[in-house]
Design goal:
CATH class: Alpha Beta
Strand order of the largest sheet: 1-8-7-6-5-4-3-2
CATH superfamily: Homocysteine-binding-like domain
Shape: globular
Structural class: alpha/beta
Largest sheet: 8 strands, parallel
Distance between the termini: 17 Å
CATH architecture: Alpha-Beta Barrel
Length: 305
């Protein structure tokens, strides 16, 4: 899409569930992270979903991002991970039915966000199979999110097998750009264009970028659309950025409670969103630190457009 044109329809995602749960007063600590709310305060998980739905999002994402061995530990994940995932799916489905939204089934990083070097491909199927089986009854499509490498995306696609629901693959990007001329890259170092080609081979129905700084997203959108155009394929491209400061390459996304930028209030974030849409993005939303107040501003902006 050329600069200055506007897409006919923008799909609006929700925002960052973890920080919204924290704002609501939900229990929130390491190592369980947001999974602790599913254990001790599921009513607040429902309230967080309600907040985003009331703000006007089209899609709610299940709140099982931290229901993985990295956060729960091996023993607890295999003992109670399925039950917690079912709670996440059921709550999202019930809120979606009330508000008329769709539900995205979160398939998160299994061995720590932002760290493709910690990914263990031979371990991935046993974990993903549990998430897919349990979330299956509740979701409209699948969202592989904060995907740091093509290997992580491939593991998700293989775990889904013959499931005929759409698969959206969302990659997380390097926060540091070496130079304006350097091609946008995943946190693995793989170029975005290579990731897009790989996602197409894996059967992705949409390609997104999430949990990276807003400043690095525009070039990734451009690279994705260039690659899709050269392949004569039309797929939605989307963005849901975080509100974290720059994260270094050896950072674990949920290893500590990162500061939230003060300069990304809703209108500032809208400025980035407007740019992404002008570049051709047709799916927008927010990740960590982007709350219902941001989504409400985006919804109003879309209605005015």
């Amino acid at each position: 899409m050329k600069e200055g044109s506007q897409p006919a329809r923008i799909t609006l995602l929700d925002g960052g569930m973890g920080r919204e749960l924290l704002r609501l007063g939900a229990p929130f600590r390491q190592p369980e992270w947001s999974a602790l709310s599913l254990m001790e305060a599921p009513a607040l998980v429902r309230e967080a979903h309600e907040s985003f739905a009331a703000a006007g999002c089209d899609i709610l994402t299940t709140s099982n991002y931290a229901v993985v061995p990295f956060h729960l530990g091996e023993k607890r994940f295999f003992a109670s991970g399925a039950d917690l995932t079912a709670v996440a799916g059921q709550i999202a489905r019930e809120v979606a039915a009330k508000w008329g939204t769709k539900v995205a089934g979160s398939l998160p990083p299994l061995f720590g966000s932002y760290r493709p070097d910690l990914f263990i491909p031979e371990r991935a199927p046993e974990i993903l199979n549990i998430l897919v089986e349990v979330l299956g009854p509740y979701v409209d499509f699948w969202l592989a999110e904060t995907t740091s490498s093509v290997d992580e995306a491939r593991a998700v696609a293989e775990a889904l097998g013959n499931d005929d629901r759409p698969l959206w693959i969302s990659f997380t990007l390097m926060d540091e750009e070496k130079s304006p001329e350097d091609a946008p890259r995943l946190r693995s170092g793989q170029k975005v264009k290579f990731a897009v080609r790989s996602a197409l081979r894996l059967g992705a129905s949409a390609i997104l970028f999430n949990c990276s700084r807003p400043e690095v997203m525009s070039r990734a959108v451009e690279a994705a659309i260039e690659e899709l155009t050269s392949a004569h394929i039309s797929l939605p491209v989307g963005v849901y950025a975080n509100a974290f400061p720059t994260q270094q390459g050896d950072t674990l996304a949920n290893s500590d409670l990162h500061d939230i930028r003060r300069d990304l209030e809703p209108l500032s974030y809208l400025g980035f969103v407007d740019t992404w849409c002008r570049r051709g993005a047709t799916i927008i939303g927010g990740c960590c630190g982007i709350g219902p107040e941001h989504i409400a501003v985006l919804r109003k902006w879309l209605q005015e457009k």
